[in-house]
Specification:
By secondary structure, the protein is of the alpha/beta class. 31% of the residues lie in helices and 24% in strands. It contains 13 helices and 21 strands. It has a 6-stranded mixed beta sheet with strand order 3-4-8-5-9-19. It has a 4-stranded mixed beta sheet with strand order 18-11-10-20. A 4-stranded antiparallel beta sheet has the order 14-16-12-17. A hairpin with a 4-residue loop joins strand 1 and strand 2. The longest helix has 18 residues. It starts with a strand and ends with a helix. The relative contact order is 0.20.
Length: 467
């Protein structure tokens, strides 16, 4: 089947023609489920200590038992407690460009006191699997490993190497992905990467698929600190512009400021095509954003919609604050952490200059805490969009494939920075009004998980089979 871009990068349409797809065969759903249950039972949040190492050990044991050679299994990490796993599924042609497949083993904390179910135990109820990481992103880990094993077991011979990359700290600082993209780039060198931790399938109110979302770009994660200091003194003798007051005023100025709307080809296309899944009341705003040109009046309602607003501009928000040293003393210091999500076409310098201009009138200094790292958009390519779209229609029906700019950050940012295009394709069907990743009672529908396992099984065959 031949793929052409429709009007913009916002939607991919299937044109008439024939694209060879891999013969349909059944992945090992039982193995995929067992691996998911085992992974959820490992506390791979920061509080879990050695559990990440234990989870990696389970995966390595499963791959060794299937016969993957030791020379193709690499456990590398930034520390003994945070190992990452890289596995190569070899083709007969070592010179053919490889395909990297990504997921992350770690999760955010799940507090048992907040949950209705044990967060570090897979609990099945009413067609759902509950547990921390069930969607973000242990489902991705389990399905990739299960499919590697299933393909190896059936004797599938790819035309190009498939590489599995499972990282240990995506939810904190991403140092593992950064290390693999730099120090160990030889282990993951590929023509492109497919990331289970991005995109998704949007479900309608009736649960039917409406659109298949593919992440092709993401905003850049940068963090700053607003700081102020003063000799302080006795609280009975207050004076104006204490460090806490100064930082507070700077934060109010930041909240009142909106970075300019700055659409790129991906975000403009997204606004053009998102109406297929958006509620009717959003469609006027979507149309206005699709037509927006620099200098136009900002469309009404944009700033009030957190998601659309974040797609349209760089955003910065205060996320932590501290100050003062005693109840009865004037503060000597105050510090606020400001997290920014920067559009990939904008520079760190431009953002930092804007923040400094907002803070300076209040006597507040701006310092970089987590530096900017470029993450260029991944342009559409036929050997990705072709199989992704054809298989989306095979598994989910005649729905559009919509590239997106992700407002959040993934390991894909580090891999793009290493020169490897990344495409986020979770293929998990979810109701956008009930996404529980990072929240309480995280869950995945069993049917959605099985569907995604099957999609990725076919995708691995398709992208590794050359004409």
């Amino acid at each position: 089947m031949r793929i052409r871009l429709c009007a913009s990068l916002g939607a991919l349409c299937v044109a008439l023609g024939a694209m060879p797809l891999p013969a349909q065969a059944a992945p090992d759903q039982a193995l995929a489920r067992q691996l998911l249950d085992d992974l959820i039972a490992s506390n791979t949040a920061p509080s879990g200590g050695p559990d990440t190492r234990h989870a990696v050990g389970l995966l390595v044991d499963a791959l060794r038992a299937e016969g993957f050679p030791e020379s193709d299994i690499h456990v590398v990490g930034i520390s003994e407690e945070l190992p990452s796993l890289v596995v190569r599924y070899r083709s007969p042609d070592p010179k053919a460009g490889a395909v990297l497949m990504m997921a992350h083993i770690d999760v955010v904390e799940g507090l048992e006191s907040d949950w209705s179910y044990p967060p570090y135990q897979a609990t099945e109820e009413d067609g759902w699997i509950y547990g921390r990481g069930s969607t973000d992103n242990k489902a991705g880990v389990a399905m990739l490993v299960a499919n590697f094993i299933a393909l190896h077991r059936e004797g599938f011979a790819p035309d190009r190497d498939l590489i599995l990359m499972l990282t240990a700290d995506e939810e904190t600082n991403g140092l593992s992905a950064n290390m693999l993209g730099t120090t160990h780039r030889d282990l993951i060198a590929a023509d492109f990467a497919l990331n289970t931790d991005g995109g998704g399938v949007i479900a309608g109110e009736d649960g039917a698929p409406l659109a298949f979302v593919m992440q092709t770009a993401e905003k850049v994660y940068v963090t700053y600190a607003f700081t102020a200091s003063d000799p302080g003194g006795h609280s009975s003798l207050p004076k104006p512009d204490s460090p806490i007051s100064a930082v507070s005023r700077a934060l109010v100025a930041l909240e009142d400021y909106h970075f300019p709307i700055n659409l790129n080809e991906i975000s403009r296309g997204f606004f053009s095509n998102w109406s297929v899944v958006a509620p009717p009341e959003d469609r006027a705003l979507l149309g206005a954003m699709a037509a927006y040109q620099p200098g136009d009046t900002e469309p009404e309602g944009l700033a009030a919609n957190p998601y659309y607003n974040s797609l349209a501009r760089t955003t910065c928000v205060a996320t932590q604050i501290a100050g003062g040293h005693a109840e009865n003393a004037l503060p000597q210091t105050a510090r606020a952490v400001v997290n920014c999500r920067v559009l990939p076409q904008e520079s760190a310098e431009s953002v930092e200059q804007r923040l400094a201009a907002l803070a300076a009138p209040h006597g507040v200094q701006v310092e970089t805490v987590f530096p900017y790292m470029a993450s260029p958009p991944s342009l559409p390519r036929e050997d990705v969009t072709g199989p992704v779209t054809a298989l989306a229609q095979r598994h989910f029906g005649n729905i559009p494939v919509i590239p997106e700019l992700s407002t959040g950050a993934t390991d894909g940012a580090f891999i793009r920075n290493a020169g490897i295009p990344v495409y986020g394709i979770s293929a998990i069907l979810e109701d956008p009004a009930d996404i529980r990743a990072h929240g309480m009672d995280e869950r995945i529908a069993i049917s959605a998980y099985q569907r995604s396992v099957a999609y990725w099984y076919d995708l691995a065959k398709a992208v590794s089979t050359l004409d």
